Amino acid sequence: MNKPIYLSAALTPESTDCTTNRAFSGVAYSGAMIENHGWLSNVVIDIDSMTIAPNLQLLLEHDTNNVIGTATAVKQDGKVLVNGLLVSAIDDDAQRVCQKAQAGITWQLSVGLYDYQQQELIEGQSEVVNGLTVEYPATILRNSVLREVSVVALGADSATSLAIFSQNPTKKEDNRMEVKALQEENATLRAQLEATNVELSTLKEQFAAKQLEARTNEVKALFAAIGKEATDEAIKPYLSMDSAAFAVVSADMQALKPKANAALFAATTQPAEKPAFDSSKVYGANRYNQGA
C-alpha cells in the first residue's frame, strides 16, 4: 500500500465563540502543482480520477482515535472543496482548536489521499492535468481515494483557504421556518390520511353488510328449493363461506333433494259412466210379467 498524501488549507476563525459547534468550509486542493511535497518533490493530483469516500470524519492530526467533527468533500471547478462541522460544543479538543485559532495560531485543514497510482514524467514529457500543463520534473497522482480530513498544525498546499464560522442566524431562522412548514404540512397529511382511513373503514363495513344481505338471500332461496326451513341458526354456517365454497355446497344440496315419484302423478283410466235409471222400462217389465 502506498503512503498517504496530505493536502492542507489554512483554517481561520470568524467568531470568538468556541462553546458552540462551528461550521467550516474552504478549498482543500486548488488543482495546481504542489512543489517540494516530501519524497514526491513536485506533485499534481488528477482531480477527475479522484474518488471521495462518503461520511468523512474530521480528525485531529490524522488520529483516528480523536474525532473532532464531521466533513464532506466535493470536486468543483477543478478544485477539491471541503465543508463540515467542528463539534466544539461537546468536544474539548475541538474547542481547543477553536480557541487556539482565536489566539492567532494558524491551523491547516488536511485531506488524506490513498490508493493512488503514480505517473513519473520523464525529461521532455508533459501532461494536461486539471486544465493545466504539467511538465517534467513532476509526479502525477491518478485514481486516488480521499478517505480522511484532519485539522493539523502544518500543511502543504499554499494556494488553498478555509474558514471556521459561526452559524448564520438568518439561515438558522430560515431553517426553523422551513421545519415548521414541513411539520404543518405533515400534520395536514396525517389528518387527511386519518380521514381517508375512516372513509375506507366505512366503505368496507357497507360492502360487508351488502355481501351478508346477498348471501342471506341466497341461502334462503336454497333452503326453499330443497324444502328446508330457513331459521337463523340453520343459515348461519353458510354466511361465512366464500363464494366458491358456497357454490359447491349449494349444488350438492340441490342434487341430494328427494325427487317425487313420477308414478304418483301419471294419468289414470276413468270408469265407464253409469247408465241413467229409466223407470218406464221397469214399469213395462212389471206389466209384462203380470200378463204372463
- SSE order, one letter for each helix or strand: EEEEEEEHEEEEEEEHHHH
Radius of gyration: 51 Å
- Taking all residues together, what is the mean pLDDT? 79
Q: Whole-Å distance between the termini? A: 162 Å
Percent helix: 25-40%
Counting helices, strands and paired strands, the structural category is alpha/beta
Tally of domains: 2
Strand order of the largest sheet: 1-8-13-5-6-7-2-14
Number of strands: 14
Main β sheet profile = 8 strands, mixed, barrel
Low confidence ranges: 158-173
Number of helices: 5
Beta-strand residue percentage: 25-35%
Shape: elongated
Structure, explained:
By secondary structure, this protein is α/β, with parallel strands linked by helices. The chain folds into 2 domains: 5-166, no CATH class; 176-255, no CATH class. It has 5 helices and 14 strands. It has helices at residues 92-102, 169-226, 232-239, 243-255, 279-291; strands at residues 5-13, 22-29, 43-45, 51-52, 56-60, 63-76, 79-86, 107-114, 117-120, 126-129, 132-135, 139-142, 145-152, 161-165. It has an 8-stranded mixed beta barrel. The protein has a 3-stranded mixed beta sheet with strand order 3-12-9, with no helix packed on it. Strands 10-11 form a two-stranded antiparallel sheet. A hairpin with a 2-residue loop joins strand 10 and strand 11. The radius of gyration is 51 Å and the shape is elongated. The termini are far apart. The model is unreliable at 158-173 (pLDDT under 50).
